[in-house]
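Appendix B. One record, verbatim.
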Amino acid sequence: MMSTQVGSTAGTLWQTLGKQKRLTLAKISTALKVEKDLALVALGWLAREEKVKIVESAKGTTVSLTESEQAIYEKART
């Protein structure tokens, strides 16, 4: 059952990143309205599938879809 919840949350995160372009790591769980642990596991799922890029900087860590995934998201919207 947990894998279903993680998969569903990963899909929601993918959609959210497609729409918002970029989120800070700190804001992912808030944007998804889920517990932080679940949000991070979902992020790990997407990272493992190479669907997201994670960038660390002095201002914090940001997450976005890869360019190819963003293109898929944009194409699906048209």
